Amino acid sequence: MDNILDKLQAVLEERRQASPDSSYVASLHAAGMDKILKKVGEESAETLIAAKVAEFGGSLDDVVYETADLWFHSLVMLSHLGLSHKEVLLELERRFGLSGIDEKASRDA
Q: Which of 10, 30, 105, 109 is 20 to 30 A from 4, comparing alpha carbons?
């Protein structure tokens, strides 16, 4: 599983250049940010529902599946903006060791 985000980023960039008729990722990019954000929103809602159902005995596999969809579409969104997972990981690394309360306070200042 090492470097799966790097591998996925490479595929996303390759498919971004593909024909929208032959690639789901290319079709999302061709449709534009509104379509991409709609998919991120849909996947977010599906993830939330799966998690709530899992809390009451539903499938944890569904939570993993929906979270993977959410992450995928979030990566497409980042790609559309010329960003990658690396910027997000750097931000998480920056926050590592900070309390959530302190980190939030630094943004509010």
A: 30
